Predict the 3D structure of the following.
Amino acid sequence: MLVGLWVAIQLLALATGRAPTLHPAWQAPGGSYVLGFLLAMLLGTALFEESFFRGFLLPQLYLRLGVIASERMRLAAAVVISALVFSPWHLPTLLINQDLEPTALFAQLVNLFGAGVLLAVLYLRTGNLWVTMAVHALVNAPTLLLASPVSGSMLAGTLGVALIIAWPRFIGRPLAMPLLRFEALD
């Protein structure tokens, strides 16, 4: 899955209209660093965050919000709450690695909230944590081969949205395929 998504991002970068030139990251610090960073994202950050936020927290919130009668409202509330927890989870990284003004920090947190919603909906649509892990890893470490005026993270996020829309057709099901459903184990 990761390789297919990675190839799709490279094709999107190629389609941005810029003359194909090697992305500077492959020259310095080099290909082994770029691929190592992607593997670290996939087997570290994305694996942990997707397992916890989408694989554990999202279904637990959905089940605990049983007081909300409407299944759709309960699911929407679980998605929003999980994204609200996902966003400040990144606050230490933002404060340590970036010197951000308060408004820029707030903007980053809003972007992370949006990413949390996107990844939750992607998980609900696909029912597959590996897909969300691959998209998450590629947003964090897009490893573009070709230079592009559009950031690799933006291309990976766009691919995530496209997967949400096209997933049923991708796996050979009707477009009206329902979202993943969570059930309590009694």
